[in-house]
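2024-03-11 09:14:02 DEBUG pipeline.ingest accepted 1 chain
2024-03-11 09:14:02 DEBUG pipeline.ingest length=346
2024-03-11 09:14:03 DEBUG pipeline.predict start
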Amino acid sequence: MYDGIADLPVRIDSVELSTLERETSSDFTRVSTVIEFHGDGATGRGEDVTYDAGDHRTLVAADPDWGLTGEWTFDEFSAHLDDVDLFPEPPESETARHYRRWGVESAALDLALRQAGESLGSVLDRTYDPVRFVASTRLGDPPTIDRVEEFLSVDPTLEFKLDPTPGWTPDLIDRLADTGRVRVLDLKGAYEGTSVDNPPDPDLYGRVLAGFPDAVVEDPALTDDTRPLFDGHRDRVAWDHPITGVESVESLPFEPSWLNVKPSRFGTVESLLATISYCEERGIRTYGGGQFELGPGRDQIQALAALFYPDAPNDVAPSAYNDPEISGDLPSSPLDPPEDVVGIGW
């Protein structure tokens, strides 16, 4: 698929950066940077979803143009970025390098498509289908069903992606299962040194597998104690945090049945499209994931889901689903694409 966009011309006359900030239901303040490229009367936008707020403030204060002005093909632009340090100071986490690279590349691709009067779908000869989404939410400490029930009081058809923790009692699991609306369970077993680390717990894993027999189970930590629990359940296992490209898929403990595709984890557009193609060729099912995007990044992951995995349990709900307070007028799933799409998002 990358061949379909590699030769797109893009002209960049100027670079503009701005910061977005918003409280979230996960008890942290999300900060992101919107990257705008201006050229030939058009504007292309991307979003850097680096998690450390200091990295964003340092970037905006430096106000770099990274030497990106000029005329390129998209492939030339991407290759040039290999030699550009996008961080005025080293990032707090090395994963941020992929996040910022994606923000810059998505802005350039958005501009190239807009200058050509095209959408990503039209260039790749794909249609935008209505996007099924799930609400990803935490259940508090100690965990309760309250937030799920509040969402369901607004929209009884809403589906969920939830993060099981050791505090999930058998009673809570039964009550959540009785809703019939839980589609994905994220064990977060691949994280280390973060605020969401969830060390492997054989008892929790066993309760989750038994309590939600039809749900996708994401990112288990496979140890001598937990690995046997997944015998007969491997077709339910999805991977998210480790996935940054085709090589990372081939390095998984076993052939995957599901992948959570978070575009910002891939860094480059080429790596993202190559991995989606790899999955399509091998029958690996995919669904979209988000990173608490506040601006154009959210539209872009929804548009990508519409092109590549519209019927999956996509964690790409509109940003209002991440607000601390639940609104009474939330959009319902599926999301209908606009009639006229230009650029990488909509």
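2024-03-11 09:14:41 DEBUG pipeline.report The two ends are 20 Å apart (CA to CA).
2024-03-11 09:14:41 DEBUG pipeline.predict end
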